[in-house]
């Protein structure tokens, strides 16, 4: 489920069809990407 950097504060709810929806923060806007910091492309 954790598909990114800084995966934070996931919250779930059920929609009107009974499906579980999850919303969370991913990646901090003020921070450089780890790939750039490590010079991997």
TrEMBL record:
<dbReference type="InterPro" id="IPR023296">
    <property type="entry name" value="Glyco_hydro_beta-prop_sf"/>
</dbReference>
<dbReference type="Pfam" id="PF00251">
    <property type="entry name" value="Glyco_hydro_32N"/>
</dbReference>
<keyword id="KW-0326">Glycosidase</keyword>
<dbReference type="InterPro" id="IPR013148">
    <property type="entry name" value="Glyco_hydro_32_N"/>
</dbReference>
<protein>
    <recommendedName>
        <fullName>Glycosyl hydrolase family 32 N-terminal domain-containing protein</fullName>
    </recommendedName>
</protein>
<dbReference type="GO" id="GO:0016798">
    <property type="term" value="F:hydrolase activity, acting on glycosyl bonds"/>
</dbReference>
<feature type="domain" description="Glycosyl hydrolase family 32 N-terminal">
    <location>
        <begin position="1"/>
        <end position="33"/>
    </location>
</feature>
<comment type="similarity">
    <text>Belongs to the glycosyl hydrolase 32 family.</text>
</comment>
<keyword id="KW-0378">Hydrolase</keyword>
